[in-house]
Amino acid sequence: MTAIKFGTDGWRGRIAREFTFANLDRVAQATAEQFLADGDATQPLVYIGYDRRFLGEDFAARVAEIMVGNGLQARIYDQFAPTPMVSYDCYIEQARGGIVITASHNPPQFSGFKIKLPFGGSAPPEYTTQVEARLDASPPRAQPLRAALADGQAAYVPPSEKYLARMGELLDLDRLRAFDGEVVVDSMHGAGGRYIERLLQGGKLRVTTLRAERDPYFGGIHPEPMMPQLQPLCDEVIRRRALLGLATDGDADRVGAVDDQGGYLNTHRMLAILALYLIRKRGLTGGIARTVSQSVVVKRIAERHGLPTYETPVGFKHIAALMRTHDILCGGEESNGLGCKLHIPERDGLFSGLLFLEAVQAFGKRPSELVADIAAEFGDFAYDRRDLALDHIEQGLSLIERLTANPPPTIAGYPVREVRTLDGVKFILADESWLLFRASGTEPLTRVYSEATSVEKMSALLNFGEQLARQSL
Fold first, then answer.
1. What is the CATH number of the domain that holds 415?
2. In principle, which of 138, 196, 315, 410 could form an S-S bond with 8, CB 3.0–4.6 Å?
3. Is there a contact between 400 and 424 (Cβ–Cβ < 8 Å)?
4. Which of 117, 122, 112, 116 is nearest to 56 (CA)?
5. What does residue 67 show for φ and ψ, rounded to 5 degrees?
6. Distance between CA 185 and CA 412 in Å, rounded?
């Protein structure tokens, strides 16, 4: 029997291999039991969404049958739905929970199962651990969907107008629409569709959406809004002389950006611009949260404005947990997840993309100019990451153990000032340049990250890290 394990955000597997209807039944049954054990008995509602992957609507329908079979009420979106839309509906309706059939930014052969809770975000690790503990405790209980629809225990619902209306409350859409320029949006064939274009239509601003139609193969790529997948967006921004390019991933909870010169803006730069906008233009305060692989620049921005910073393990779920217990202004992870206190404790590619456009407009400068200004004020740092394929998951874990027990005193000739082991092992230099090793717990990969005060130094650190890792494997 296939082992089911929830990762950074949900359970994922290859369609027809690990992600089968039989395994989906097991996970859905365990989730239904956890919903019933943990939730308010007077509110049995569960929202069920899906992205544009192969069999998404069929998997969602089967989940609905399991939910209804356990005495819950299912509300299934009648078309693809962005993950943050499901999260917001769970929050605004105070539903028992939500489920999204999505593998997010993973390649097209994967599907997945995300759990959302009434606070408007992903189920934390302690919750999914309880779901795992309930696996196979009882056989799946299902009611045929046709009967559930007939008696009102299940219903198909359109995409959430409440979620879309909330965008208008959080953002000055009229001001954005009045801008005389052009923005290019790349939905990467995912659940972002034409939502940003719809929200911005009706003014001077011209919006063009690329890859808006459904393609379960995502055009032969994995729908992660970073390079090299965003090369078509870079090319189109240059061709159209657009102000900005925005991209969302397969389920639209992550966002990427391209500046006016066709250059990719990684999450480090996006978070820095957003933080400055929220502080200097919106007058907001609060801590800034960043994962261990995020830029030192956002820490410097927080320090300059007297705000605390919080460093978390990789995964937006850790930032979301902080947002529920601390006054967090904004937070971000290296893999395109951003969130802020204005919204639910959830990464939202649509909202974050629009907020980023609002920041660019408010500063009155082109994105490339903002990047240059931040580098001049807070320091210029170059960043990159390398993924090293392994034969076994255990190899990566063993590497981290050895580096933690016997850290090198120097890396690439530079003395190590500090060693941190919050998530993997991170070596920090005197000028705040750093090298990080992390082992994946779900696939045979070791990731080597670096940020440094020049491209040359960053490359030297990465080369050293890769060589050290390969020698130790």
1. 3.30.310.50
2. 315
3. yes
4. 112
5. -60, -50
6. 40
Q: What is the mean pLDDT of residues 39-63?
A: 91
Q: What are phi and psi of 206, to 5 degrees?
A: -100, 130
Please tell me what DSSP assigns to residue 124: P
Question: Does residue 137 sit in the same domain as residue 183?
Answer: no
Q: What is the pLDDT of residue 441?
A: 61
pTM exceeds 0.90: yes
Which residue do the tokens 């639910």 mark?
344
pLDDT band at 445 (very low <50, low <70, confident <90, very high): confident
> Which phi and psi angles does 146 have, rounded to 5°?
-60, -45
Residues 463 and 447 in one domain: yes
Choosing from 159, 182, 208, the residue where a domain stops is 159
* 3 found inside a domain: no
393, 440 Cβ separation under 8 angstroms: yes
Handedness of CA 195, 190, 260, 456 (dihedral sign): positive
Q: Are residues 77 and 154 in the same domain?
A: yes
Domain final residue pick, 123, 141, 159: 159
Q: Angle, to 10 degrees, between the axis of helix 161-170 and the axis of helix 83-93?
A: 90
CA distance 83 to 191: 8
Q: Note whether 458 and 382 are within 8 A (CB).
A: yes
Tokens of 34: 């956890």
Burial annotation 249-279 (CB, 10 A radius, 16+ → b, else e): bbbbbbbbbbbbebbbbbbbbbbbbbbbbbb
- What type of residue sits at position 283? G
Higher pLDDT residue, 471 or 257? 257
**247 and 352 housed in the same domain:** yes
Sequence length of the chain is 473
* Predicted pLDDT at 393: 73
User: Within this chain, do residues 115 and 182 fall inside the same structural domain, yes or no?
Assistant: no
- What is the C-alpha to C-alpha distance for residues 198 and 295, in angstroms, rounded to an integer? 33
Q: Which of 67, 68, 63, 59 is nearest to 147 (CA)?
A: 68
Look up the CATH number of the domain holding residue 99.
3.40.120.10
